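Per reviewer request, we include the raw input and output of the structure prediction for the construct analysed in the revised manuscript.
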Amino acid sequence: MNLAWTSVGALVLAIVLSCVTRINVGVFAIALAWIVGVYLGAMPVATVMGGFPTALFLTLVGVTLLFTMAQCNGTLDRVAHHAVRICRGHRGVVPIMYFVLAASLASIGPGNISTAALVAPMAMTTAAKANIPLFLMAIMVGNGAQAGALSPFAPTGIIVTGLMNKIGLGGHELRTYIANLLAHALVAFGGYLLFGGWRLFAARSSHAAEEVAGAIEFTGKHALTLAVIGCVLIAVLFLNANIGMAAFTGAVALSTLRLAETEPAIRKMPWTPILMVCGVSVLVALLEKTKGLDLFTELLASIASPGTLTGVVAFVTGLISVYSSTSAVVLPAFLPTVPGLIARLGGDAFGVATSMNVGAHLVDMSPLSTTGAMCIAGIADPTLVRPTYNKLLAWGLSMTIIGALGCWLFF
């Protein structure tokens, strides 16, 4: 039996199941890696288990614990409410403010999914009260959250940084973050204006003004929580501290100072995507050991040419990401193929990796993805759910083409 082809088949099966079932693909990937590696490849169990990304796991747990504690004690909610106050009822400015707010929050640590869960319901409620088209608000707040996804402090950014380091593209964290941010800003503001957002600047809304006027107040507890988060960011930026260990220390500080409780935060942490990421990483590590990664790379190279490589990989990762997890499945599976694709077809490795990152994230406003689903969940009027769902689905699918063309032109 050809173990390389078997391991590739296992990865493809995991990707397909992540698209069409509710099973946690991380659990499934670990089981596949065990079966293929131990029983078909005669590898020691320790060799298969060696693919578990321990450092990544600890970093993700530390960062998500810190910001989940800040969310549980109401700090992030208050930041969101106060940021929107400055709009003061200007309807055209409100969606723009939500884009900036979501991008800022996602960038400092919570990441795109947590930020969408926090901000999207409030944004959609504000839109309904202020007579702002729900579709316009959704593409602004959703793309805002996605714009901050690849921040070096955000969970997905941490995952991508680790993957990029493994393929020899370390040191590009800021470029990767900015490329993704600019891509989402371009499509969000382009769509906002194209679909009628410019008309909202003509009048104020008393409902929007009332919505932001009722913002909840900060207390000393919330100010100290922000101070602890600020200290963590300063330690990482200026003292070269490990972000995961610094985040654990920040979480301990919040608990010791009785600013937030650890146990409720641990229960609310996003364990599902963390397990998905780590499980798929185990299977991808097995592919490297069996030479299956080389075969997977050849399959990708066979459908591209040197001139179309960036566009093709953006399209493929985007199409799969419409139905599957971007950070937990798509990027861990595809980013490791970059060196092999460059060896076969040539080109700029950073451009190819960025095309995968951007192409996979642009489609996540689809309601089949978490960010888009959060926006749909925030709609109170049931008669508006289906029309907005259909528009977001069309938007997400169209981003496979827009992303591919944009990456082909710019990368």
